[in-house]
Structures are given as structure tokens and as C-alpha cells.
Design goal:
The complex is a heterodimer of chains A (374) and B (375).
Chain A lengths: L19 H35 L4 H14 L1 H25 L8 H16 L7 H30 L3 H21 L33 H18 L1 H11 L1 H6 L4 H28 L10 H11 L4 H16 L1 H8 L4 H17 L18
Chain B lengths: L8 H13 L5 H9 L3 E6 L9 H13 L4 E6 L6 H14 L3 E4 L5 H8 L7 E5 L12 E6 L2 H14 L4 E6 L4 H17 L4 E6 L6 H13 L4 E5 L4 H9 L3 E6 L10 E7 L1 H13 L7 E4 L6 E3 L8 H15 L6 E2 L2 E2 L5 E3 L4 E2 L16 E2 L4
Parallel strand pairs in B: 1-2, 1-3, 3-4, 4-5, 5-11, 6-7, 6-8, 7-17, 8-9, 9-10
Antiparallel strand pairs in B: 10-12, 13-16, 14-15
Helix pairs in contact in B: 3-10, 4-5, 6-7, 6-11, 8-9
The chains are: A mainly alpha (374), B alpha/beta (375).
Chain lengths: 374, 375
């Protein structure tokens, strides 16, 4: 469609004429958000390949194994998706506050506390049916996670404390709190050498998706991403948040409830991260213990930035990262490379994606109105 | 029956391409190897395999297995106790044709190994540390572990001879029974030499947290401790920090003498090579593998590091005498009357527990002479 620019800013746009040219323009404008990250990933593949080659390893074998171990077979895809499940939630915990201009990196804390809350509420619900117990676990986890990241939001709003630092430090507090509780008040006396809460009841365990050895957390995570996208892109709350993220003072002058938005979006992000913890307990560990701190919260940061904080884009990037991590074992075994190889590769991708941010709006092909008129 | 993966067309193409250039265990090679009665064995470690500690001890065992003809060893390190270890086991089985898998970290057992094993009845799983129960756990799974408390008792004897301040120290991860047995054994060994010795313990709260391990070691030495040992996954930081401060070190898990050549006294080491070699030889011969295996010093599951240069002849003789008694069997570290450091009598007069006694597996106290608290 043709867009009016310049002096026609607040004029009503004429009805779009569907012509070949306008479709092409629409595609080229939309293509920017796909082509630039893909270009960054491609550059990462090439650079890392050169790095491997200098180190005396075969980059083609590396990428071949990465494909095989991450996506090449049903087993690999299942591995990628089950690793992606907690990452979807963890990335939302970064992406939602990011729409307000906040950089929250402490999702790990919300994950472990969400898992702990889910395991704790499952104790008195040992005889409850699944349709009561599982939602109760999810709600407890969302409250715990939401409260925790909500603290970072409230500190930001009321005291001006940097939310990046406070959320990160709160994550350490959360892990210490979780360790204290599973080693103390809620410790199952039978868990001698690995302090844990008592296992959740059988009927509260969450199973796998039909025909796929991947737990339901993945499907719920995808739905959560879609809901978050609707919230941000299709509701007035999301619109207000984006305005506040763009310019806080302008938002305040407009009378937007900036404080409520900050705390609310932080809490919502935390609630999603709490759900990641709930699924770790309900579908993987079956009790809360130190293994909940599996660093998903930190990989989530990477995914949110790769997705440019767009909840829909989180889905493919979480699967991509899940696949890369799924292939790590195969690469270790077949090529004798250290496990950190995958981390180095992820780090390189992260830097390149950040660099690629500077390319938005620079290429004329993606900005049809800047092209010379036909 | 070893699991035999069916290679896809893609795999066949890839293997064909990779075969000449790379000596790797691809599914095709794995499948052919089975026909010749060979075996692929997988080892999974929770930390780095060169950590001078828990994981290195297992990796040394794996290295011994590599020397057996016809055996291919595949290894993965830094695998978390999460869905990651389940997927690593599946990947080793399906991509590399592993027929015997050793997930070596305590947290890999329940629920992870127990979730994967029933899906692969043709593969044998043996786990380090947990307690396998017939009828409760799958028949193709099993567990093994060693009694290393006697090793810490011998460490204590050597430490008591070396200490001038009569204060020895222990950097511990978590107050769980296995760790408490080691702390108490270390102190009781030292007190068998000099009943006035005390042992200060600091818990770091984590199996692997270098910063706190260094802080704990420094704090111990600041309080006058002059011999340090530990029970964390990787003793490297403790050993190096203690040696840099001029304190003597007793090792744990593996041999750390290379990190402190002058100050390393001795150490309680795992000797997993014996166990892994036995398991693999049995598997190669087609014999059934035991589901529950345990052993200590006299079974060759545990060994002591050679004495360092700082160990006097008198100290070595004293430790060797006790070790000889241990090797002949019936030696008990925990015998009554034994009081906790809060004054409770835990083992009455006339009672003595062997290292294999089930009563020790739920230990929740520090004995008199240990300065510190389990909570």
C-alpha cells in the first residue's frame, strides 16, 4: 500500500490500491525484519566456520552435525523442542519488559521460584485431581515468578533502581532462597544426597504431546508467545507500553499509567518465567531441587534479543537455540570439541545480532518510499 | 541385545562421505562393530572432565576402558541434571549405538535415567551413587558407588602429623550424608593421632562454586588452620588457594599433587578404572551385569595418593599401619561412645559401624571436635 509521509502525517490515507508494485513494497518493507537477522546468522556461520578452520576443524562437518543433532531426525527435533520449551517462557520474561525500554535479565530467579512454588502447592494437593492440581501449580508458579520480577519493576518505578542490576541480583537471592527451602523446611527426608522437595503426585505430572516425546510446556509456551504478541500489538495496554517505552515523559504527559505499566509488564514477564519453572517441576524433575537453576533464564535473554523482543519471533529463535544446544553433545562426541564450543557460537551470534540492529532503515530496498519514484 | 539404530538415507550418505576422513563412531560403523562383538560405551559427566576432581576421576576410569580392544568410548561433559542428560543418553544410544551408558552424577538417576531406561530395554544403564532396588527400578539399570570415608580417615592421620596449630580445615559443598561422613572421618582420623585436634568446616552450599571455595579456604587459613581438605566437585581452587597460603593439602576425588607438589600430603581418590573395566569386560563376554555394586579401599574402588615430600616417615608409617588394618577388613571409624559437636550421644558404647553399615547413610551430624553446623 502507498504510505503518505511528510506533511500528510495526520491526513487520512487513501484506500490502498492492490497493484503489483504495492505488494512488492509491502513485501520489501516486511522483509527487513527477516533478512537482517538471517544475514547476521549467516555471517555468524561464516565467521565461526573460519574460526573452526583456523583451529584445524572441519566447519562443514560441524554444521552438518549441528543440523543432524538439532533437526536432522525426529529424535533431534524432539530434543530441540523440549530444550526450547523453558526458553520460550524465559525469553518472554525479557521481551515483555523490553517493550517498555527495560532490560530485565533476572528471569532465572522467577524460574526457580516458580518451580519451587509449584512443587510446594503440589504437596497439599497430592490427592487432588489433575484438573485442579495442575492449574493450581501453574497459578502458584505465575504468582511467585510475577512477584519476583514485579519487585524489580517496582524498584525501578518507585526508587529509580536500575532494573538490569536489581533483577540479576534478585536471581541470586531467589536461587539461595530456593536452596534454603529445599534443604530446610520443605526437604523430603528421603532425599538424602540430593536435597529436594517431596515428589509431586503421579496425577499432577504433565505428560508429552501426542506422537512427540516433548512435554506440554512447549505447546503452552507457543500459546504464551502468541498471547503476548496479541497483548503488545493488538491491545491498548500494549500500545501504551510501547509509547512509554519510546518516551516516558511523553507517555506521562498523555496521562498513561506508566508505573502500573512498568510493574505490570515486569510481573507478567516474571509470571511466564514462573511457568517455565512449573513445567520443569511438573514435566521433567517431578520435585523442586537445585537442578531448577539450569540457566534457562540466561539463554532466554539471548533469544529475546535475537527476536528483537517480538513475542512471535521468539518461537523460531527458541527452537533454533534449542536445536543448537541439542547438537552440542553430538559435536563433542564426534569432533572432540569442548562443550563450550556451542557457547562460543551462541555468543558470536548474539554480538552479530546486536551489530545488525544498526542496519535497520539503512537499506533502500527495504524502504520503498525512499526509492526514486517510478 | 545391543540397540541397533537404523541409519537413514541421509546418514548413509554422510557416513560414506565422512568414512575416509574421520575415524568416528557413526551409526553405520557402530552397527557393523556390534556384529564383531564390540561395544560402544557412553560416559556422561556433570562438570569438565579435567576438573582435578569428581569428573576427572570418572574420566580416568573411562580412559582405562578405552584401552580395551573392541571398545569405543564416547563422552560428554558439562551435562546438566535436566532434560539435557535424558537427551544426551538418547543421542548416545541412537546416533552412536551405545549399548552401555554410565551417567556419573548423582542427580542423573531420578527421574532422568529412570525415564530413559525403559524405552531402551536392550541398553544397560549403570549409575554412580544412587541405590538400585529390585522391582522398583528397571532391570536394565543399576548403580555403583564406593566407600571413601576410610580414605578421609587416613587423610586425617597424615594431617594430624603435619599440623602444628592443631587446627585442620574442611571445605564442604552441602551437609548431606556422604559429605558428613567424610568430614567426621577426617576429624576422627586426626583425633586418633592427637585427641586435641579440631576441624573447622565451611559449607559453600554448591557443588561447584570457585569463588566461595576460595573464600572458604582463605577464611580457614585466617583462623589458623594449616591443613586443608575438601569435598566439592573440583578441588582445584581449594588446593591452589591453600598452597598459595602455605597450608598443607589432603586431596579428594582425584590426585591433585601436580597443583601443590611441595604441600600435597596425600589424598583419598576414586579408582573407577577397576569398576569400569570389570563392567565392560563382562558386557563384552555377554555376561549379565550386576545391578548393585559397592566397594571400598580393600575392593580397589578407592585408593590413596602417593605420599608427598612433606609427609614424615613417622606419619607415613602410622597411616600405613591403619591402612593395613583396613585392608584386612573389619575396621570401623564410627564406634561408640561417639558424641556430636552439640553434645548428643549418637553411637553408644559398644556399638561400632562398618563403612558399609546402612545406618551411616543417613548421617546428619558433625562429631565432637568438628567446628561448624549442618544447618
Amino acid at each position: 500500500m502507498v504510505q503518505l509521509v511528510g506533511d500528510g502525517g495526520d491526513a487520512v490515507a487513501p484506500p490502498p490500491r492492490v497493484t503489483g508494485r504495492s505488494v512488492l513494497d509491502w513485501i520489501s518493507r516486511r522483509a527487513e525484519v527477516v533478512v537482517i537477522p538471517l544475514g547476521a546468522i549467516l555471517a555468524g556461520l561464516v565467521l565461526f566456520g573460519v574460526f573452526l578452520w583456523i583451529q584445524g576443524h572441519d566447519p562443514f562437518q560441524f554444521y552438518d552435525l549441528m543440523y543432524l543433532g538439532g533437526f536432522g531426525r525426529q529424535l533431534s527435533i524432539e530434543s530441540a523442542l523440549s530444550r526450547a520449551a523453558p526458553l520460550l517462557f524465559a525469553a518472554l520474561c525479557v521481551a515483555l519488559p523490553a517493550r517498555l525500554g527495560l532490560v530485565v535479565i533476572g528471569g532465572e530467579g522467577a524460574i526457580v521460584l516458580g518451580g519451587l512454588a509449584a512443587a510446594a502447592i503440589a504437596l497439599p494437593l497430592a490427592n487432588a485431581p489433575a484438573f485442579v492440581g495442575i492449574p493450581a501449580m501453574a497459578i502458584a508458579a505465575m504468582i511467585a515468578g510475577g512477584f519476583w520480577i514485579g519487585i524489580a519493576g517496582a524498584l525501578r518505578h518507585y526508587r529509580g533502581v536500575n532494573e538490569t542490576i536489581s533483577s540479576l541480583l534478585l536471581a541470586y537471592v531467589a536461587i539461595a532462597l530456593m536452596n534454603h527451602i529445599v534443604e530446610g523446611p520443605l526437604r523430603d527426608p528421603a532425599s538424602l544426597n540430593k536435597p529436594s522437595t517431596a515428589p509431586i503426585a503421579d496425577q499432577l505430572m504433565v505428560g508429552t504431546l501426542p506422537g512427540l516425546n516433548v512435554h506440554w510446556g512447549f505447546a503452552v509456551g507457543v500459546v504464551a508467545c502468541i498471547l503476548a504478541w496479541i497483548l503488545i500489538d493488538r491491545t491498548t495496554w500494549g500500545f501504551s507500553a510501547r509509547i512509554a517505552g519510546g518516551n516516558v515523559r511523553a507517555a506521562q504527559i498523555q496521562g498513561l499509567p506508566v508505573g502500573k505499566l512498568i510493574i505490570g509488564f515486569c510481573a507478567l514477564g516474571g509470571a511466564f518465567a514462573g511457568l517455565a519453572g512449573m513445567f520443569e517441576v511438573a514435566a521433567v524433575q517431578y520435585s523442586a531441587n537445585g537442578s531448577l537453576a539450569a540457566r534457562y533464564g540466561y539463554t532466554g535473554i539471548l533469544i529475546a534479543f535475537l527476536a528483537r523482543h517480538n513475542p512471535l519471533m521468539i518461537i523460531p529463535f527458541a527452537v533454533l537455540l534449542g536445536g543448537i544446544e541439542a547438537s552440542g553433545g553430538l559435536i563433542q562426541r564426534r569432533m572432540g570439541l569442548p562443550d563450550a564450543t556451542i557457547l562460543v557460537f551462541e555468543g558470536l551470534l548474539f554480538v552479530l545480532i546486536l551489530i545488525s540492529e544498526t542496519f535497520y532503515g539503512r537499506f533502500r530496498i527495504f524502504n520503498p518510499e525512499k526509492r526514486s519514484p517510478a | 541385545m545391543p540397540f541397533k539404530p537404523v541409519p537413514s538415507r541421509r546418514d548413509l550418505l554422510k557416513t560414506g562421505a565422512a568414512l575416509g576422513a574421520l575415524g568416528v563412531a557413526s551409526p553405520l560403523i557402530g552397527a557393523r562393530a556390534f556384529a564383531q562383538g564390540a561395544l560402544t560405551v557412553g560416559f556422561i559427566y556433570v562438570g569438565p572432565r579435567d576438573d582435578y576432581g569428581y569428573n576427572q576421576a570418572h574420566a580416568e576410569g573411562a580412559a582405562a576402558v578405552k584401552a580395551i580392544p573392541g571398545v569405543t568410548v564416547i563422552e560428554e561433559e558439562n551435562v546438566p541434571e535436566s532434560v539435557a542428560v535424558q537427551r544426551s543418553m538418547e543421542s548416545m544410544i541412537e546416533f552412536d549405538g551405545a549399548a552401555l551408558v554410565f551417567p556419573t552424577s548423582f542427580g542423573y538417576f531420578d527421574p532422568h535415567m529412570l525415564a530413559v531406561a525403559p524405552r531402551y530395554p536392550g541398553v544397560q544403564f549403570r549409575h554412580c551413587g544412587a541405590v538400585w532396588q529390585e522391582g522398583v527400578h528397571p532391570a536394565n539399570t543399576g548403580t555403583y558407588f564406593g566407600y571413601i570415608g576410610l580414605g578421609q580417615y587416613l587423610n586425617g592421620i597424615v594431617a594430624a602429623h603435619a599440623s602444628r596449630t592443631k587446627k585442620i580445615g574442611f571445605v564442604a559443598a552441602k551437609p548431606i550424608p556422604q559429605v558428613l561422613i567424610n568430614i567426621n572421618s577426617f576429624l576422627l582420623g586426626a583425633r586418633s593421632v592427637d585427641p586435641t585436634i579440631t576441624c573447622q568446616v565451611i559449607f559453600t552450599g554448591e557443588w561447584s562454586m570457585a569463588v566461595r571455595e576460595a573464600e572458604a579456604t582463605n577464611a580457614l587459613i585466617d583462623q589458623g588452620v594449616d591443613v586443608v581438605t575438601c569435598h566439592v566437585d573440583g578441588p582445584k581452587v581449594v588446593v591452589e588457594t591453600a598452597a598459595a597460603r602455605g597450608a598443607y593439602v589432603c586431596g579428594y576425588h582425584a590426585n591433585q599433587s601436580a597443583l601443590a607438589p611441595a604441600l600435597y600430603l596425600t589424598g583419598a581418590e576414586w579408582n573407577w578404572a577397576t569398576l569400569y573395566t570389570n563392567f565392560v569386560n563382562q558386557a563384552l563376554a555377554g555376561e549379565p551385569l550386576a545391578n548393585f555394586v559397592r566397594g571400598g579401599l580393600s575392593d580397589g574402588f578407592v585408593k590413596m595418593s602417593p605420599y608427598g615430600p612433606a609427609v614424615t616417615a613417622e606419619a607415613a608409617a602410622a597411616a600405613d599401619a591403619v591402612k593395613a588394618e583396613m585392608m584386612s577388613g573389619g575396621f570401623s571409624v564410627f564406634r561408640g561412645p561417639l558424641y556430636t559437636n552439640t553434645g548428643t550421644l549418637v553411637i553408644p558404647e559398644g556399638t561400632a559401624y562398618l563403612e558399609t553399615d546402612i545406618a551411616l547413610e543417613s548421617m546428619d551430624y558433625l562429631v565432637e571436635g568438628v567446628i561448624g553446623s549442618t544447618s
